[in-house]
Write a structure and sequence with these properties.
19 strands; 7-stranded mixed beta sheet; 487 residues; binds zinc ion; alpha/beta
């Protein structure tokens, strides 16, 4: 059955055309025609009155982590409720494939909370399972998963044959539609890979003309060096398209690096197409375990949990945290279990514990527990969101509203409305805001079938009430759905 969307202002996702009063005709799958008001009045179609709202392409989440959570809760309410119909997953080096005897057990444990049996090996099989989901998930190939499939999770050197095998496995994923490779150079085991191991893999990205994304090795103290490393790797491998994941400057003492950071990106733009995604929040979120200093000598959560069963080790860690995280360390907010949304210092005081001992105890009980860190400057964040090469990304795993698969950072339900609201407040033209949520991410990941309203494109559209589109998600109530948007 054809559908006619009328009484709306068309924002077409190209970023170029100003909004105009128009109509859109679509069948169940594809857009048939887009025109001015009353163009299709004669068509035999189900008429959908948009009530004067904006009509735009459905949003594309350029940076998601719903690789397994979407299989556990395929309705993907956290995405759909804010207008996303597509998510690029497999980010930060972590994808759900390839799976071999070297990494299956680890991945199963890592994703234990979702109760999904990892019974696939390759991208193609995994993508078939994703078809049950209510949004389209398009998985990047995560380098850390790829390396673990060949070498496991330890700090072991790769032989030339290992590197070739990594490249072969990557080619197979590219042949099955994975749009690029994601690096997570901060995380195990990608952090162990030497340049000579990475290059054959990266040359595969170049050969297929795919995008290389990166969770930089540092987003704070050494972010400039981390950017140099990323750009140099891409250039050496002959890659043309690079993408910085969740662009931000972490830690107050690094905020003055913004100018140098942007200059470095501008310089790289002369040789590479550099893009980025960003979420509109000043608190980042990751494993609480990232606070463990390098000198503690543990790189993975499972080993950390085991070691911290001993009181001596907990005290040793607490002492190291005391000295390594000085007065200006970013305040830490706990996100899991009974402390969800509470600051570490408050939770510790309530339990009459020293904060660092308390953190060590939490890690002993739940080494995978997550925390957020208030280390992003609001002013810089706003500036980054508005850059013409930055698109929207949640950096979250879609989880059901009732918390059955755990709780989230409010960005899980609030990224699209917050992104829209903050850029609208900066007076960025509406067509450019929508482009950063649709046409731009489509272009970055080579999704030529969506992201703009034009004949032949996917019939995924959103209706937006521009003054009522807002996030209801908070730290204490992170799963409240957005208002003012209909997918
Ligand atoms: Zn990341």
């Amino acid at each position: 059955m054809k559908r006619l969307f009328y009484n709306c202002t068309i924002v077409d996702g190209t970023g170029k055309n100003p909004p105009y009063r128009g109509e859109l005709l679509a069948d169940d799958l594809k857009i048939l025609s887009v025109g001015m008001e009353n163009s299709f009045a004669h068509e035999n179609a189900r008429r959908i009155d948009c009530g004067g709202q904006l009509l735009a392409p459905a949003f594309i989440d350029a940076h998601g982590h719903s690789d397994l959570s979407a299989l556990a809760a395929p309705e993907c309410f956290a995405r759909r409720s804010q207008g996303f119909a597509t998510e690029i997953c497999g980010n930060c080096g972590l994808s759900a494939f390839p799976v071999t005897s070297r990494n299956r057990e680890h991945l199963q444990e890592l994703y234990a909370a979702y109760g999904v049996e990892i019974n696939w090996s390759e991208c193609a099989e995994y993508r078939k399972l994703l078809q049950q989901c209510a949004i389209e998930l398009i998985p990047l190939s995560g380098y850390n998963t790829l390396r673990a499939a060949v070498l496991g999770y330890g700090d072991v050197p790769a032989t030339a044959a290992d590197a070739r095998l990594e490249a072969t496995l990557l080619s197979a994923a590219f042949d099955h539609g994975s749009p690029g490779l994601s690096l997570g150079l901060l995380y195990v085991p990608g952090c162990f890979a030497k340049r000579e191991e990475l290059l054959p893999v990266l040359r595969t990205v170049a050969k297929y003309d795919r995008v290389l994304t990166c969770h930089l090795r540092s987003e704070g103290d050494r972010i400039l060096e981390a950017l140099d490393e990323f750009f140099a790797l891409a250039l050496d491998a002959g890659i043309e398209k690079v993408h910085i994941s969740h662009l931000k400057l972490a830690g107050k003492r690094n905020w003055d690096k913004a100018e140098a950071l942007l200059a470095k990106i501008a310089d790289a733009q002369t040789r590479l197409r550099v893009t980025a995604d960003a979420y509109p929040y000043t608190e980042s979120m990751t494993d609480l375990g990232v606070i463990v200093p390098e000198a503690f000598g543990v790189f993975d959560n499972a080993t950390l949990g085991t070691l911290l069963q001993s009181q001596e080790n907990r005290e040793k860690l607490a002492a190291m945290l005391q000295s390594s995280r000085g007065e200006d360390a970013s305040p830490i907010r706990l996100l899991d279990g009974e402390f969800s949304g509470e600051m570490l210092t408050d939770a510790a005081a309530r339990n009459h514990r020293d904060p660092w001992i308390f953190a060590a105890e939490l890690l002993a009980q739940a080494p995978n527990s997550r925390a957020s860190f208030a280390g992003i400057s609001e002013e810089r964040m706003e500036e980054f969101l508005a850059l013409d090469y930055v698109c929207v990304g949640t950096d979250e795993s879609s989880r059901p509203a009732d918390g059955t698969l755990g709780w989230s950072h409010p960005r899980n339900y609030g990224t699209a409305p917050e992104f829209f609201r903050r850029l609208a407040a900066q007076k960025l033209p509406i067509e450019q805001i929508i482009w950063k949520m649709t046409g731009l991410p489509a272009q970055i990941f080579g999704l030529s079938d969506r992201g703009v309203l034009a004949p032949g494109k996917k019939a995924d559209v959103v209706r937006i009430d521009p003054s009522g589109f807002h996030s209801e998600a908070t730290w204490t109530n992170p799963h409240r759905p957005a208002k003012g948007v209909t997918l």
